[in-house]
Amino acid sequence: IKEFRNRLGGFHLLRKLFLIDGLAGSGKSDLMEFVKSSHARDATVIPKYSTRSRRQQEEAVHSDLMFVGEKKFEELNSTDFYSYQYAGKKYGFFKSTVLTALDNFEYVFIIVRSRDLVDRIRKEFANVAVVRPIFIHSDHGFIVDRLRKDGFDEETIEFRLERSKYSWDDYLAYPDSSLRIIINNSQKADFHRKINSLLEEF
C-alpha cells in the first residue's frame, strides 16, 4: 500500500489530486458542483482567487472563484502562492491550502487552466499524492448549446470557444500518458457517472 508521511508525522493512504482543465462550456463547473454535493465526505474543491469579473450568469455559490482586484491579488502573491494568467486575467491559490485539503480528504480537485502550472504541481506533489491531470472535452455543438442555455450571446460564445481552443491544442501538442480525457457529450447524469467511475478507479 502506498503511504506518505504528512506534516504531522502520521501515515495516510496516498491521496488523489485531480487537476482539471477543459474547453469553455465542457462541464468543469458542473464537475465541481457534483463533487461538492455528492462526495462532500471524502472530496473537496480548492477555491481560487481571480482578477476577472463575475459573469452575469454566474452564481457565486456555485463558483470555485473568489473575485479580487489587481492590488489584492498582488498582495496575496508569495512563494506559497501558485498563480497563472488566462485570457488576460490572473488566477491563484495557496500551496498550503492544497496540503491541508490532502490531509483531510481523499480526493482533491482544482481547476487549473495552465499546462505549465499543471506540470509544476505534478513535480512538487509527486511524493505527496497521486496527481492526475484531467481534460474535459465536448463537441462543438454541445458546447454552443450549453452556453446558449446559460445565457451567453453569440459573440461571447465565439470568444470563449476560440480562447479555450488553445488549451486543447496545447495538450495535443505535448501528449501526456497520465492525462485522462473525459468526454462530456451527453446528459448530466451520464457525466456524473463518469466522475463516479473516476473516483472508484483511483
What does the main sheet amount to?
5 strands, parallel
**Arithmetic mean pLDDT:** 85
Radius of gyration: 17 Å
Total beta strands: 11
Shape: globular
Portion of residues within helices: 40-55%
If you had to describe this structure to a student in words, what would you say it looks like?
The chain is α/β, with parallel strands linked by helices and 202 residues long. It has seven helices and eleven strands. The strands form three sheets. Strands 4-9-3-10-11 form a five-stranded parallel sheet, with helices on both faces. A four-stranded mixed sheet has the order 6-5-8-7. The chain is globular. The two termini are 13 Å apart.
Could you list some keywords that capture this structure?
single chain, 202 residues, alpha/beta, 5-stranded parallel beta sheet, 4-stranded mixed beta sheet, 7 helices, globular
Set down the secondary structure blueprint.
Layout: E1 3-5, E2 11-13, E3 15-22, H1 28-38, E4 43-45, E5 48-50, E6 65-67, H2 70-76, E7 81-86, E8 89-94, H3 95-104, E9 107-111, H4 115-124, E10 129-137, H5 140-149, H6 154-173, E11 180-183, H7 188-201
Parallel strand pairs: 3-9, 3-10, 4-9, 5-6, 10-11
Antiparallel strand pairs: 1-2, 5-8, 7-8
Helix pairs in contact: 1-7
